[in-house]
Amino acid sequence: MSDLKPVPIKGPEESSDFIHKMEAQAEKNPFEGVSFEDLEVSLYRPRTAFSAILTWIVTFMTIAALVPLFAVLWMLIWRGGKKLSLELFTALPPAPLEQGGGFGNAILGTVVMVAVATLITVPLGVLTGVFLAQAPNNSKLAGAVRFSSKVLTGFPSILAGVFAYGAIVLVTGGYSAIAGAVALSILMLPTIILTSESAISMVPARMKEASIGMGATGAQTVWMVLLPTAAPGILTGVMLAIARAAGETAPLLFTALFSNYWLNSGGHFNLMQPTASLAVLIYNFSGMPFKNQVELAWAAALVLVVLVLITNLIGQSFSRQQVQL
User: Fold this and answer.
1) Domain containing 107 — which CATH number?
2) pLDDT at 269 over 90
3) Angle, alpha carbons 73-76-81 (nearest 5°)
4) Containing domain of residue 105, as a range?
5) How many domains does the chain have?
6) For residue 14, which of 10, 34, 43, 102 is within the disulfide window of CB 3.0 to 4.6 Å?
7) How many angstroms separate the Cα of 2 from the Cα of each of 6, 195, 296?
8) Residue 4 — very low, low, confident or very high, per pLDDT cuts 50/70/90?
């Protein structure tokens, strides 16, 4: 205690001098002594020139990559837009040499098969994502499931159709919307699993700890805390999976095949019969030697692209909500 010395207290005059000095320093030019000529960007400098060249190259490559995309969109709008009418969404496909017609049954079949596939996949995919997010880091089962899901993301779609053909079509004895939905669900499953795991893992640990600290069980924490918080991210994955499934053709050739008739009859849906879809209709009509069928194929392609685009935009909106959370 004897080593401590009292700190002298400044008087009013010394305090005012200190304030005046601080104000004088604040009024000084902060750029005093800085040579702006040395900071000027010059293309003659090697590093600056190299940076500018790379910027031009990246810009050119970006524009070149966008050219095919906008070219396809323009071709679809130009060729398919001329055929758009209300009849397309309400009429059945025309017979050869017949004019008019539409693909209302194909739109209905696509929506029904994707909806059934979503009902099959979402519960399984979300619960698997919960398991992966909650499993210990050294869990061998979780590692195997995660690896299998990543492998399935690159699974050829035609093999999903062959599997559903052997498991559903041969067993039931005919092509059906259920078989097509099973094939599409195989392609949707890995996307939903991985996005659900990622969304649940992003939920702050303090929210889970607070729930457990209040006496909630593990199931209650998952159902009432983790899933509602991660819902935007999970819905993003669901929308992306739906967008992929809606444009698949090969699996449906082996499972749902095609039909020129409506899926529903007498107010009831018969899911155990061959079912039309937009992707297969495009495949069938685009190779026909009839002008009307080819024009319908272009219009169907435009409608399918618009549906996929809308689905992707909805998924992006959910993704932005997840980022804000």
Assistant:
1) 1.10.3720.10
2) no
3) 125
4) 84-324
5) 1
6) 10
7) 11, 67, 99
8) low
